[in-house]
Amino acid sequence: MTHSTCAVALVACMTSAAIGNAQAAVTQNIEPATIGLGEAARLTIAASGSDASSITPPMVAGLEFVAVAQSQRIESINGTTRSTTSITYQVNPQRAGVFTIPGDAVGASPLVLTVNNANGSAGAPSTPAAGVLPNATLSTQSGGPTQVAANGSAFVRLRLSKHDLYVGETIPVDIQVGTRDGMVASLNGQPTLNGDAFTLDRLADKPQRTAEVIDGNRFTVFTWHSALAAVKPGHLSLTMETPLTVRIRSAARPDRGLFGDQDFDDLFNDPAVQSLFGASTEKEVTVASSPASFTVQALPTEGRPATFSGAVGNFTLSSGVSEDTVAVGDPLTVHLHVAGSGNFDRVSSPMLHDVEHWKTYAPTATFKANDPIGYRGEKTFDQPVIATQSGAQTLPALAFSWFDPTTRHYVEAHTSPLRVAVAPANASGSSAARASPSQAGQPRVVAVDSGDNTGLKPDHVATGLTVSSLLPHYFDVPYVVAPSVLALAFLSAGFWVRRRERLADGLGAAREREAALRTEPLLTEMDQAAAGGNAVLFFTSARQAVQRVLARRWQVPPANVTIDQAKKRLGPQTDVAELFELADEATYAKLKPSAIDFKRWKRVVLQQINSEMPS
């Protein structure tokens, strides 16, 4: 078959389809006819003798129609060609009720869809799901009228909640890109914001997808939910734009081709038909939204609290502690919760510092969003603290301030002071426990002379034992032999002492070498931790190594080598005490030292180890 024969056959088929279009019959069906809120139904619209462009989704308030499938069947009966096109829509109800779906064209019967609540009734409207902004809060035309691009292929529009705002105030915004089916080949990127007067939160990779009919043309609408904020005051405007690849149609010839039939030319110019037969070319374009105007006011300076950090919105404040009973030296965490809606990126608090009887560390912050754009949520500040004195201690109240755009005033809120019962670090450290076991619980004995000191003592001397010889005792044999034995014993003792000292020196050197070998794994751990940036493991190993060295030097258990002992024995400015403090900070305050810091503190540890090694 030649190319000319194929062309004639194709034109004949298309002509027959155009003629058959005059007798188009439209049917529609929905299954199931009764669903619950949160479920979906399937609506199928079939048009015989028609192409897909003649089928459009119904417009019913409270129902969303999303095209999910399309099929086409062409059959020839007795030389007459007839086509049937079917499109299936997923019907998503937005509230409960009874809905009437009108016919899409003449001859299509209306349908009834019943949407029940969870309790089975269909009368009460539904409540929007938590974390989803209701459509009623965003005006469809608030960003300007929908302007379809000159070639009718696409549009970009904004849905905003308000146009009067303050600098730093965050508002929800929906960015919608509509692409006409059959005319847009692809989206080439996310919408971008024009201008430097506003900031826009990061857009999701997968936008919501719906269908919409404008001027009888069916569009697929992509919606991104985000948050918009102004960074400077004034009368400002913004637009959004997005890059697309569109199909440029090849229009019919002015003489209307071979047959001179208007219906045939319209069918040939349809985007779906031209895309099917390659009668279009692709071109990259950029589509922009209509300008949206804003009046942005600067935040007032009058009444601005000293703790204000730029938060704008509506918030509530609460605080607490991880434990209300601790011991001296044990850490606990202070929590500050800020909940509400607004620009959470500017929500901050100074927390606690320079608190008497408490040692404080740097706080950390986490944010939990309650909606897809982070406009509503809760920010939590966690600060580690350590009590330095026992007794009933109090942590001061915490403060947070913000600007409320509804009341147009600043708000400064304070939490209640937090009371904590602090027990001594070690009950055995009391003075009673430090007393020696032989003295503990024994009464004190005081000598008392109860004799009578009055009167005269006897004037005679009582005689002792009698002796039989007047020879002095130092001439006796025992007195002569004893000094010799004692001298020999002293000489022998001196010899053994000298020998034991030499043995002890050798044994001490061996012990120092053994101790150095026990310290080597800690040095290896320090090197591995420094390479991986693990501050907790690095400073923990460093402290253990120094504690072992100083414990041998001071003849105490390693656990007794503390920050206070290091300052007392080595001076208040010693590097060892600072090393121990950094070990605590790394554990409780997420310390992040640099590579130079790791090298410096390893050098401190090596100096302490080398000072203990025998020469």
Description:
Helix 1 (3-20) packs across helix 2. The model is unreliable at 1-23, 123-142, 252-259 and 427-462 (pLDDT under 50). The protein is of the alpha+beta class and 615 residues long. It has 4 domains: 3-116, Immunoglobulin-like, CATH 2.60.40; 137-295; 311-423, Immunoglobulin-like (Sandwich), CATH 2.60.40; 503-612. The chain is built from 9 helices and 29 strands. It is 25% helix and 34% strand. A hairpin with a 2-residue loop joins strand 14 and strand 15. The protein has helices at residues 3-20, 262-269, 271-276, 431-434, 477-532, 535-554, 563-570, 575-588, 595-612; strands at 25-31, 34-36, 41-48, 63-77, 80-93, 97-101, 111-116, 154-160, 164-166, 170-180, 184-187, 192-193, 198-200, 208-214, 217-230, 234-238, 240-249, 280-288, 292-297, 313-321, 325-327, 331-342, 358-360, 364-369, 376-387, 391-395, 399-404, 409-414, 418-423. It is elongated, with a radius of gyration of 46 Å. Strands 8, 10, 13, 14 and 15 form a 5-stranded antiparallel beta sheet that branches. Strands 20, 22, 23, 24 and 25 form a 5-stranded antiparallel beta sheet that branches. The termini are far apart.
